[in-house]
Amino acid sequence: MIFKKPSNALEGHTRIEIKTISEEMEVSFSCPKCKKRIGGNELRENMHICPYCRYHFRIHARQRIDMICDENTFTETDKTLVSKNILHFPEYDNKLKTAMLESAEKDGVVCGICEIDKNKTALFVMEPFFMMGSMGSVVGEKITRLFEMAVSEHLPVVGFTVSGGARMQEGIISLMQMAKTSGAVKRHSDAGNLYVCVLTDPTTGGVTASFAMEGDIILAEPGALIGFAGPRVIEQTIHKKLPEEFQKAEFLLKKGFVDDIVDRRRQKGYIAKILNMHNRGAGYDCL
Amino acid sequence: MTAYEKVAAARAKDRFTSVDFIHLIFSDFTEMHGDRRFGDDPAVVSGIARLDTLCVTVIGIEKGKTVKEKAERNFGSVHPEGYRKALRQMKLAEKFKRPVICFVDTSGAYCGIGAEERGQGQAIAENLMEMMTLKIPVISILIGEGGSGGALALAVADEVWMLENAIYSVISPEGCASILWKDSNKVKEASACLKMTAEDLYALGVIEKIIPENKDLFANIKKELMVVLAKYKACCTEELAQKRYMRFRRIGDFYD
């Protein structure tokens, strides 16, 4: 099955055909950045990174989970939660149905417990093909529950963000999820637990302005668009064309808002190292 | 009034702004400037004042009165340093055990190059996190426009009140109309869909109080603030933060 391009792909990608890779088909893909053709198998073996220009293709939450967790250690939590059209917002019911088909997920985030290099970890991974990972009640609730569970089980949280921001169709209720998730992150942090967040393309709006920017350690994938306002909105506000590198991961690193840029192929090892260095007994915690 | 009429009222050029509330409700207001990191954002007015005899910290997003002042205050669109100034004042309030009162009136956090370079998202996120555990009462009053994350960054409070013609929304009706119908002229329809009026938000359980816009507006707010702050004086600080978390924790609806 070929997944369709999300209808609300963020700026800069709207003109580009984005396809994810299906297991059954051996087809070739054109890299959105360098335009070179890449075989499906080759792409898959390279963790969906263009071998020529290092462009990181957008991937499903489940693909990321496979890449980051120790084999067969992921147990999903809160998997039954489904969005409700609280405000009777026009077209929302249809949008949800389409999003479920496009992503094969129930909403914009997958949460659970896993092991990363044998470290028991609470994990959330956002799903770009479900309304571009927008945050409504379900995303807010699942993230909040994950952090609450991590507090009671003394677990670190590792999270991968990809989001267009708060979900317009749930109006003010979506906005409130920013406060709710931030509160949960704060309580997790105050209890002395580690939160590592990996920002992937794109991370914008209400997710950037809440749990994406609240990690103790914030990493980003190369070339990822990260910002509060989307580039199109900024261009409309200031009536100027933005430079190419603006709001890219490398730009955020330079400005001091991310700790490091980590290629997808290095992520598991990198995160495992961080987790190991924050284990009980790693520092002076006998005091 | 329809939702769109409220949008127009909330944005009206001659509408009162935060400084009116600060000067008509409090005495001895002493303004404090700067975030101690980058600069001072004129879109945020903050300082200490007295509510009757009680010392409080007051923070307001200010759109400005005259054309010149509006430009200087960036029409109430806050930069990261404005949110950081506000947080600095809130931390001082916590240290000296003063309640915090915020007046919110913004079309949204500013969308510009400098704002992004200095971490608009990070500044808002930090306010959301830190406000959640402040050990002093926080009351936020939406007096005009409550534009998305830029408004929420001063509204993680124990109680959120709205003036009857204020609006509070995740996106502007123009933005919503252009996404939904590719037509920014359908603002009226979008205003209704977004459920952004004080009545809507009260019904959704997002705010505690609607304040009528009558001739006694300022006196009423003063009275209400004195009542509520007297009530919170008796609250234990840990319990206060716990209740604030639960206030936001319960918001959201889904099938499970």
CATH superfamily of chain A: 2-enoyl-CoA Hydratase, Chain A, domain 1
The share of residues in extended strands of chain B comes to 15-25%
Record the strand order, biggest sheet of chain A.
3-5-6-7-8-9-10
Distance between the termini of chain A: 56 Å
Mean pLDDT of chain B: 96
Low-confidence stretches of chain A: 11-17
Name of the CATH first level of chain B:
Alpha Beta
Number of domains of chain A: 1
How many alpha or pi helices of chain B? 12
How does this structure look, described?
- The complex is a heterodimer of chains A (287) and B (256).
- Helix content of chain A is 33%, strand content 17%.
- Chain A is an alpha/beta fold.
- In chain A, strands 3-5-6-7-8-9-10 form a seven-stranded mixed beta sheet, with helices on both faces. In chain A, strands 1-2 form a two-stranded antiparallel ribbon.
- In chain A, helix 4 packs parallel to helix 5.
- Residues 11-17 of chain A have low confidence and may be disordered.
- Chain B is built from twelve helices and nine strands.
- Chain B has helices at 3-11, 18-25, 67-72, 80-95, 113-117, 120-132, 148-152, 173-181, 187-193, 198-203, 217-233, 237-249; strands at residues 27-31, 44-51, 54-61, 100-106, 138-147, 159-163, 167-169, 209-211, 254-255.
- In chain B, strands 1, 2, 3, 4, 5, 6, 7 and 8 form an eight-stranded mixed beta sheet that branches.
- In chain B, helix 7 links the parallel strand 5 (138-147) and strand 6 (159-163).
- In chain B, helix 1 packs across helix 9 and helix 8 (173-181) packs across helix 9 (187-193).
- The longest helix of chain B is centred in the C-terminal third of the chain and has 17 residues, at 217-233.
- The termini of chain B are far apart.
- Classes of the chains: A alpha/beta (287), B alpha/beta (256).
- At the A-B interface, strand 4, helix 4, helix 5, helix 6 and helix 7 of A face helix 5, helix 6, helix 7, helix 8 and helix 12 of B.
- Strand 4 (82-83) of chain A pairs antiparallel with strand 9 of chain B.
